[in-house]
Structure formats: structure tokens, C-alpha cells
Design brief:
By secondary structure, this protein is an all-alpha fold. The chain has a single domain, classed as Orthogonal Bundle (Catalytic domain of cyclic nucleotide phosphodiesterase 4b2b).
Length: 186
């Protein structure tokens, strides 16, 4: 799916009945629901920001394929899979888990369930920036198809809403990660 198509589906979904909306508030609620509430969940928002900040921590400046080819220590540790991304995750997560940041962790996540969800979101988002791994790409595409299949159950199904939200933010961080390559040089 192209970035343009992805953003169009998120920003201006074709199946939203704008004309049937009674007020501007109805349109806003409909669009909020269509983006799966991503913008109203502070933990998800922070996971996106945190992931964007750490996804290239200690990046060596060469692609994973080069790290694998050179048989670097990281490539061996991460078994040649998403080497730079896993290294960034490990380094940043280790720092966040340091005793000095207990108050920060408790502020980010008030409960164990929130902590687990934050960890899962962060891992998914950082690994999503590995756009060259064919297996990860296939898995993401399959999850997209499953989430947005026309035969899905009601939009109120919380599992399906969470699946859609997760895959949407994964695609958004991918687009954000590579957007600079599409800018004009001047």
C-alpha cells in the first residue's frame, strides 16, 4: 500500500457518511472513531513519540544487510534479523529500566497492564521501521488485510479496533522514518 493511499484512508476514509452527519461534532466523532481513537490514548501517543526518539539509537549508519554481511557482534546477537532496530530497542529499554528512571516509568505507566502495552507498542513500532525485512513486511501486510478485511465484525469489536490502531501507527512510523528521503534537496 502506498503512503498516499494509507494517508487517504486515515484522513479521508471513503466509507464515512459526511452528508448524514447532523453537526460538525458528528463528523469529528466519526473521524475519531475511524482513526481508532489513536489520538485520544495518551499511552499510545507517548509510545509513538518514544519509539520515534529511540528507533535509531546507536545506529551504525549502514543497513542491516551490511551488518549481517560483516558478521558484526549485533548481527550475531540478533540472529541477522532487524539488527539495528533490535539493538536500538535493547539499549533504550535498558536505559528506561535503570533505577534512576523509576519515577518516569511510573508516570508513563500506572499499572502493569499499561507497562505491558507500552512495551508491546514500542517494540512493534521500532521493528516496523525495518522496511527491508521481507518476512516482517509480509506479516505486516497480512495483519493489515486481516484488520481491514470487509468481512470483519462490527467496528465496536475492541480486538479489531486495537488491531487496526496498531497496524495504522506502524505504517505511520514507517512513513515518518523514510519521509526525509522524499524531500527536495533545496
Amino acid at each position: 500500500m502506498s503512503v498516499v493511499k494509507l494517508m487517504s484512508n486515515i484522513i479521508a476514509p471513503q466509507d464515512v457518511d459526511y452528508k448524514g452527519a447532523k453537526t460538525q461534532d458528528d463528523v469529528a466523532v466519526t473521524l475519531h472513531d475511524h482513526t481508532y481513537g489513536i489520538t485520544s490514548d495518551p499511552l499510545t501517543q507517548f509510545a509513538c513519540i518514544f519509539s520515534a526518539l529511540v528507533h535509531d539509537a546507536d545506529h551504525p549508519g549502514v543497513p542491516n544487510s551490511q551488518l549481517v554481511k560483516e558478521r558484526t557482534q549485533e548481527a550475531l546477537v540478533y540472529e541477522n534479523r532487524s539488527v539495528a532496530e533490535q539493538n536500538s530497542l535493547d539499549l533504550s529499554w535498558s536505559l528506561l529500566m535503570d533505577d534512576r528512571y523509576t519515577d518516569l516509568r511510573n508516570t508513563i505507566c500506572a499499572t502493569h497492564d499499561e507497562f505491558d502495552r507500552f512495551r508491546q507498542l514500542t517494540v512493534n513500532l521500532v521493528l516496523a521501521t525495518d522496511i527491508m525485512d521481507k518476512d516482517l513486511k509480509s506479516l505486516r501486510n497480512a495483519r493489515w488485510k486481516k484488520a481491514f478485511a470487509s468481512d470483519q465484525s462490527s467496528a465496536c469489536d475492541i480486538t479489531n479496533v486495537n488491531r487496526k490502531a496498531t497496524i495504522v501507527i506502524e505504517h505511520l512510523i514507517q512513513a515518518s522514518d523514510v519521509a526525509h528521503t522524499m524531500q527536495h534537496w533545496q
